[in-house]
Each structure stands twice: as C-alpha cells, then as structure tokens.
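[audit] Reproducing an earlier prediction to check determinism. Same input, same settings, fresh worker. If the tokens differ from the archived copy the diff job will pick it up downstream; this log only records the rerun itself.
[audit] input (120 residues):
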Amino acid sequence: MSNLPRFLCKVKETLQDASGVTVHTDIDDLVPEYRPGDLLELRKPDGSIAQLESGLVSYFPDPEVVFSESGFHPPVAFFFRGLKKADIPPGTEIWQIVEHQIPKDVKHRKFERIEKTQGA
C-alpha cells in the first residue's frame, strides 16, 4: 500500500550556478526509497506546486570540520537543472511522489577479487 506523497524535507538555502540550483535541506539523511533522478514535488510557500526531476548532491566535507564538530553531518542537497535561485525559495517543502520497493530479503553483498591464474 502506497503512502505517497511522502514529505521529505524543507529547503533551508538555495545556491545557483550556471546550470541550475542546489538546495540545502533541513535533514542529513534520506529515506531509502529515494533514487537520484526521481520526480519530486516542490510545494512553495506561496502555494504553487511544481514537479521536477532531481539530482542528489553528495558533500565530502573537510575532515578537520568533521573531527572538530562532534556529530557533524552535511545536509542532504538536491540539484535541479535549468532553474534560478528565486524558483525555489527557502521554506519550500520537498515531497516524494515516486515509490520504489526495497526488497526485504536482500542482504549486503560481499565482493572478492578474482585474479586470472597462470595457464588459464
């Protein structure tokens, strides 16, 4: 049974570059059902709603920051191509509208290196 749309987070800050905007959110972890490229629903403070394809931004913070601030976690950040900073103001809610099933019986896979033996 689907429980969508599902609230994910709120936008805290919006940064713009030449190809689009990156939004920093108020969370530091995502639900496992989210996949980069999913269609997300943006509910803006003015009441307007937009559905956009999303990209996920991964931050690898400076180790000095991580070790100096106990419990530091970089925020979850999304990228939206072709938008301007004003298109996604702080306070915009981000909702998941696509559901992916997570198999419950899948265990972590272990990988091992296999080398070609001589004479094979």
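[audit] rerun output stored. Observation attached for the diff report: The radius of gyration is 19 Å.
[audit] end
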